[in-house]
Amino acid sequence: MPLDYRRFNGPDDSIPYNRFTNEYLKSYNELHSELINENGVRKDGRCLDEARSLCRFFARTDMISQAKGSAYIELKKTKVVCSVFDPREIMHQNEYSALGQLFCEVKFAPFSCPRERRPHAPDAEEKALSVALRKALEPTVCRHLFPNYQLDIYVYILEHDGACLAAAINAAGLALADAAVPMYDIITACSVAVIGDQMFVDPSEAEENLALMNPEKDGINNGLITMAVMPELRQISDFRQIGSMDVNCIIKAMEVLQKECEKILPNIQQILVLNVVNSFEQQKQLEKEAKEREAALNAKMEEWKAVLNAG
């Protein structure tokens, strides 16, 4: 591989310095004990069954002017931007497609993850999240209304502190509604991390990392579940599980996620209603300004007529 002698070239193989710290050398049980205190409260002050959507939820639309619809969602330290563009004809396709297609791309910002710096080229995790996002949105969008066309959806994760897939699905659903894309229902999503007999609703990045680690004992429930729901239709759009859990644990987690997804829906509905109200107010303001300009123009014309008649 040629070297660029105009800059400092680091070694081809290197070891991150954090591998020599005490944090990296902690065991599974030590990391588990640090997640919650004696009172059962997490590091960020939440209870085990408390989601960030109830206390630290912020969302808005019209973030990207070039897009047909866009949305920004902030769940404490998890920040996601989504943009939706107009349908376009599918390129390089010979066969006619009766259903429209969704092209989804999820990208991490280089500074988004606390453990490592993300590369500019798409990696395996970004590709997996893109596929998961597409599968979650396909049952929601009325794809039969734009056959042989493709809808582009781009998600950019500015900061990752857990539940990035659920935040991406929520942002994409809000952006699709902002773009006036026909949908059967507004889609909402939530995640839960299972560590032993404890369920961390809307987990942080540290809780997700521990849930995806191999426990020291066999037969322990351990993993991550993300579920996307259409609340009004009471249908599950997508269910994604990583890890090993028994049936009773999965059923309990689905019940918890169903309730959390229903709690997110009023927040998104409120944002959409405020957008409609603001649109009507802007329309009234524009009509008022147009009438004022017309009245000023008519008054000016009357003055010119009076001058001409006097002459």
Describe this structure in words.
The chain is an alpha+beta fold and 311 residues long. The chain contains six helices and ten strands; from the N terminus they run ααβββββαβαββαββα. Helices cover 36% and strands 23% of the residues. Strands 1, 2, 3, 4, 5 and 6 form a six-stranded mixed β-sheet that branches. It has a four-stranded antiparallel β-sheet with strand order 8-7-9-10, sandwiched between helices. β2 and β3 form a beta hairpin.
In short:
The chain is 36% helix and 23% strand. It is built from six helices and ten strands, in the order ααβββββαβαββαββα. The protein is elongated.
List the helices and strands and how they pair.
Blueprint: H1 28-35, H2 52-55, E1 57-61, E2 69-75, E3 78-84, E4 88-89, E5 101-108, H3 124-137, E6 149-159, H4 164-178, E7 188-195, E8 198-201, H5 205-211, E9 222-230, E10 235-244, H6 247-310
Helix pairs in contact: 3-4
Q: List low-pLDDT spans.
A: none
**Oligomeric state, counting identical vs distinct chains:** single chain
For the secondary structure, the number of strands is 10
Helix content: 25-40%
Taking all Cα atoms into account, the compactness measure Rg is 26 Å
Number of helices: 6
Overall 3D geometry? Answer: elongated
Structural class: alpha+beta
SSE order, one letter for each helix or strand: HHEEEEEHEHEEHEEH
* Sheet with the most strands, sense and barrel status: 6 strands, mixed
Q: Proportion of β residues?
A: 15-25%
Whole-number average pLDDT? 84
* Terminal CA distance: 88 Å
